[in-house]
Amino acid sequence: MADPHAIHDQHGHAHAEGEHHPVGWKKYVVIGVILAIITGAEVAIFYIEALAPVLIPLLLALSAAKFILVVLYFMHLKMDHAIFGRVFWAPLFLAVLVVAGMVILFKVLPKYGVFS
pLDDT tens digits, residue range 1-48? Predict the structure, then answer.
């Protein structure tokens, strides 16, 4: 009889729950250190006055990098089946497009007198 707690890998081989994890604890520590470094860089960038003109794009890029690392490793999307990634990334992409459209519609176009 099959073990109800078994986890099957990509080749159909069963592993007991907790027996095999695709990413070891060392990888999580490395990712945690990377996230801490990025967070420290975000804080430091905020206090560097020479970076004021590019502050928002820089912070958005660093935040996006942290978001992607957390989603891929701590939410296990990197190791899960591809359909779970699509279910997560497709609505996120759609939401980004909607927000960008709203910003353009209500903040950018009125500055050019499009609705006058």
Answer: 555 555 555 555 555 555 566 678 899 999 999 999 999 999 999 999
Quick check: 84 and 92 in contact, CB under 8 A?
Answer: no
User: Which of 59, 56, 54 has its CA nearest to residue 42?
Assistant: 59
pLDDT tens digits for range 64-106: 999 999 999 888 888 889 999 899 999 999 999 999 999 999 9
Distance CA 58, CA 54 (A): 6
Angstrom distance (rounded) from CA 86 to CA 82: 6
Which of 80, 46, 84, 88 is closest to 63 using CA atoms? 46
Residues 6+ apart with CB under 8 A from 17: 5, 6, 7
CA distance 61 to 83: 26
Task: Tokens for 45, please give them.
Answer: 């960038």
